[in-house]
């Protein structure tokens, strides 16, 4: 048996070698539960699935700060574990659902990684693979499980046509004429935001290509814009560039950050994120805001 001091030291180090994944899994799963603040049952049933997903979404925000800082991400589990659990960061779909799917599998759930295409309705099949979502099968019935779409979905939903309410959003699943399923999130009268998917096992090579493209292509929305967002109870909070948007069922409010200090404080206080050197992004954030909103008065970069 490995001495506890050695195991603790290894658990605290970055997981940099993929071949080491699979060792000390009991400790890794315990660290994941600690990260999301979950201490409930671990039986692979619907009640546990709902509870663990609720805890994950509440604890780990969606964010693309590494893309903005030029730090390369991948779909490999060791790096994802180090980032989201050890360093207590957030992540985008490949990371959030990658970690969540791994944890569910370790708990005994039947989990399938699935390729989604965000806004395939407008972008066509080129969008496929730009989103990782999950299908969990319980008692031979499939459930859509997605902790990596920014927090609109607060729990698993049956793979069946229906509209459900997860305040402040309404979410819907509908089968499309070409056989795909479409997941939509809606807020008020705004246009829905969606992704399409087939409930088949993912093309992992496609994930790898899309993951790279979305963090290197100048046309990628993740390269162009910083985004951090999270469901916090029945409130949804998102930071896009320098604009903070808070949504409730009966209204919303916006705030424009004024300087780098406010930006760093917002990441720390609102989202629980400590990112060394993140203040260096501020001039770029201000410049992008001016590009998108040229009619607004330009403030000095602070």
SSE map:
Blueprint: H1 4-12, E1 21-24, H2 25-36, H3 46-59, E2 62-63, H4 65-69, H5 77-86, H6 93-107, E3 110-118, H7 120-123, E4 128-138, E5 141-145, E6 157-158, E7 162-166, E8 169-175, E9 181-186, E10 193-197, H8 204-216, H9 221-224, E11 227-232, E12 235-240, E13 243-248, E14 251-256, H10 260-271, H11 282-292
Antiparallel strand pairs: 2-11, 3-4, 3-10, 4-5, 5-6, 7-8, 8-9, 9-10, 11-12, 12-13, 13-14
Protein name: Arylamine N-acetyltransferase
Pfam family, one: Acetyltransf_2
Family: Belongs to the arylamine N-acetyltransferase family.
Arithmetic mean of pLDDT: 91
**Ends: how far apart?**
54 Å
Number of helices: 11
- Here the CATH topology of the largest domain equals Arylamine N-acetyltransferase fold
Largest sheet: 8 strands, antiparallel
Q: What is the domain tally?
A: 2
Q: Tell me, what's the shape?
A: globular
| Structural class by SSE content | alpha+beta
Unreliable residue runs: 1-21
Percent in strands: 25-35%
One letter per element, helices H and strands E, the order comes to: HEHHEHHHEHEEEEEEEHHEEEEHH
Helix content: 25-40%
Strand order in space, largest sheet: 6-5-4-3-10-9-8-7
Reading off the top of the CATH hierarchy, the class of the largest domain is best stated as Alpha Beta
Evaluate the radius of gyration.
Answer: 19 Å
Give the second-level CATH assignment, the architecture of the largest domain: 2-Layer Sandwich
Total beta strands: 14
